[in-house]
Amino acid sequence: MDSTQVVVNAAVKLAEELGSTAIIISGEANFEKPDTAIPVYFASSKQKNIIDHLVSSNKTKEEKTKEILDKIGQQASRKIERVESVSALEFIMKEIDGGTVVGIVESKNSYAIIVHNLEDNEIVKKMKKCEERVSADILRAILKISFDIANAGREGKQIGTAFIVGDVEEVMMRSHQMILNPYAGHEDSDRDLKDKKNWESVKEFAQLDGVFVVSEEGMVEAAGRYLDVDARDIEVEKGLGGRHVSAAAITRDTVSIAITVSQSGGVIHIYMDGKELMYIESTERAERIH
Description:
Order of helices and strands: HEEHEEHHEHEHHEEHEEEE
Distance between the termini: 20 Å
Strand order of the largest sheet: 6-8-7-5-9-10-11
Number of helices: 8
CATH topology of the largest domain: YojJ-like (1
Shape: elongated
Strand content: 15-25%
């Protein structure tokens, strides 16, 4: 049995002893699927091996060793962060339960087993702040739609959009229609984001300019909405467009939460009280292999 399989088997044993809710493997290792009832996820980092690109021809042996160790530490740190972010996202999406997860981190033929408590996860803590205003079920539905838009786009093209959730009356007062509202006059059953059959229409209307306005109950009140807000004092990440700025601004002026999807890069940003609460890359989702 090779060293990779030994590490995987050891991680499985540890996870079972701890009663962990998932095992997440970060790296490019090849291994046999472990024999366990615990869900196993593979989170490939798909990044270049930076150690292979060292330029150290004029350095002493000690300097070369230190540089290699530093690079290994950097790689391991990034992959540990990936285990933590992937486990938080799968927990938010209700794919795994809370408690602890066990991670296997592979870096340049080195392996480490880590134990992560989701109660201490920063992403989970920030999502709980959102849940003070909007229920977890509604947030989860909008995030799943957002991931689909970020990853697949529409008709072969990348698109961006935004969802303004909660405090509907105030949001509607501070916005206007850019086009006829495609949801006007529709039955509640056709506007409810808790029902997956309505997700395709949302993805279709995401191609429109403007934003979606969604109630705390998950009802789409409008699409193609333009936000009438003063965003001069709003700071967002460089390179993000007007949709992100106005989405952040409306959360400053109302008791709402904004979820935006970047047209380039497929990054999902969440804004609250005029500031970015968190962002998630659309590639953060892991592949369940067991």
